[in-house]
Amino acid sequence: MKTSYHISTSKQVATNLQSVRVKVSQAAQAVNRASGSVSLIAVSKTHGCDTVRAVLDEGQRIFGESRVQEATSKWSELKGEYPDIELHLIGPLQTNKVRKAVALFNVIQTLDSLKLAESLSKEMKQQGRFPKCFVQVNTGEEAQKAGVTPWEANRFIDTCIEDFQLPVFGVMCIPPADLDPAPHFNLLREIAERHQLPAISMGMSRDYELAISCGATHVRVGTAIFGHRVV
Length: 231
Ligand SMILES: *Cc1c(COP(=O)(O)O)cnc(C)c1O
Prior knowledge:
alpha/beta, about 45% helix, binds pyridoxal-5'-phosphate
């Protein structure tokens, strides 16, 4: 079998990061937004500490991980070395992992059920730690994808804030892979605006510049920085 990936060297990763930063800032300026209004989340899932260090050395401090278990073993150590890390959970969260997630993450982007809201609310009070929450919206209403539907989102966001006292700061979406993401980005922005939520997490390696033009405040970029994931 032909291998179509390569392991990126530290130098390549650093160069990739520089170029993504430039594109983020140009995309923001193109729609008259300050470049500081967009946070670049480096999605480090599947990548080891050595690769991650290459971007830490470039001053990157905001990271995204998909799995609680993997993130805990990778970041418990790194967070000790770099106390100013801001770690985002961007993958589905099961209630049996809520304790670990609240202890480790600064932002949980995948709040998408009442069961999870209730569990997070309890656990945050117990630990006295209050990671910011983003509500994940399944803008394409895809059966296999997590998130509340756009028509459930209004009530869900209100319930999370009013009934569960969760610190809901934003919304997040992953548009269908094979469709134009622009209508999905616009829909997510409308939901954020309706609830006056400051954070809008949308855009990945292939479409982060478009997402920024549609109002993204957080873009989640993995492949364009770290190269293709092997696993
Ligand atoms: C893996 C992942 C990303 C990063 O995707 P790339 O295409 O590698 O940039 C962004 N968001 C979520 C939710 C992910 O799971």
